[in-house]
Fold DUF8001 domain-containing protein.
Amino acid sequence: MPEPLRVKSGELTADEIITALIEGRRVIVEAEMLGGVHEVTLRHDGQTFYCDTPTTLHKHPDEEGMRGCIARMGYGKEV
C-alpha cells in the first residue's frame, strides 16, 4: 500500500485529492474542527469514498459526493 499523503486543509485542490485517492493513497488532512486541530482520513476502496473524522465515518458512493464533502468541509484549496 502506498504511503499516506499528509496535508493541511486547503493545501491541495479537490482534483489533487481525488486523484491521490483513486491512485490508492490515503489522504490525511489536518483540519480545524471541534475546537481543535484533528486529522481526517480520506480514502477510496475502488468503489466507495470514505471520510473518517474524529466523530463519524462518512461514505460517498461516487466522486461527485466526495468532491462535495471536500468543498463543504474546506479540505481542498479553493480555485
